[in-house]
Amino acid sequence: MTKLQEWMSGLGIIFAIWMYLITSRSHNEFVQNHYDLILYSPITCVFIFGLYALSVVLYRVYTFNDCEQAAVELAEEIQEAKENLAKLGFKFKETAK
């Protein structure tokens, strides 16, 4: 079973339980007392998941490592490539730094 099938099965079970609670004709006191909470719980779950996803993305961006040594190495490789191309007759435009 693939991950997608696992997630879809889990969501299907949760959806089936939610639909049963919403459309149920049984006289369950908990469902009758908290019907609005059960009715809007999918919207609440999506909102909470969105907040979680946003916080994870912001945290990962904030803690992103800056590789200064790699930047210097890349600049040296670019300079070396420009020199090799200049030897082959390629002419570069001067750019402002």
Average of per-residue pLDDT values: 90
The share of residues in helices is over 70%
What gyration radius follows from the Cα positions, in whole Å?
29 Å
Largest sheet, strands/sense/barrel:
none
* Measured distance between first and last alpha carbons: 55 Å
Shape annotation: rod-shaped
Given the structure, what is the number of helices?
5
Membrane topology: Multi-pass membrane protein
Protein name: Dolichol-phosphate mannosyltransferase subunit 3
Subunit structure: Component of the dolichol-phosphate mannose (DPM) synthase complex.
GO cellular component, one term: dolichol-phosphate-mannose synthase complex
Please provide a brief summary of the model.
By secondary structure, the protein is mainly α. Helices cover 75% and strands 0% of the residues. The longest helix is centred in the middle third of the chain and has 22 residues, at 41-62.
Give your account of this protein's structure.
The chain contains five helices and no strands. The chain is mostly helical and 97 residues long. The radius of gyration is 29 Å and the shape is rod-shaped. The protein has a domain at 40-91. The protein has helices at residues 3-23, 29-33, 35-39, 41-62, 68-87. The model has no long low-confidence stretch (mean pLDDT 90). Belongs to the DPM3 family. One of its GO terms (biological process) is GPI anchor biosynthetic process. Residues 64-91 form a coiled coil.
